[in-house]
Amino acid sequence: MPAEAADETLRKELDQLRSDIAALSHTLKEIATDQGSAAYERVRRSTQSAKDEAVHAAGVVGHEIGERPFTSVLSAFSVGLLLGMLFSRRS
Length: 91
Hints:
Strand content: under 5%
Order of helices and strands: HH
Number of helices: 2
Distance between the termini: 98 Å
Helix content: over 70%
């Protein structure tokens, strides 16, 4: 009889352990989901901010080109010439 009582106690403890592990697993899943959602939101905000800044910068550049077309063409030509000279392969 004492062995049967010990077996029953062990079964109950194992059932409780299974229940505790399932609850812990559920809690960890919720934490991971919450942290993943927060990280996604941070990335989304950063991406949107970078996009807004790029659109603004493109607008400023477009405005400057419209205001000073000759200077813009001359600057682009000069930069291209300089880069061509730097990267050219001379034997």
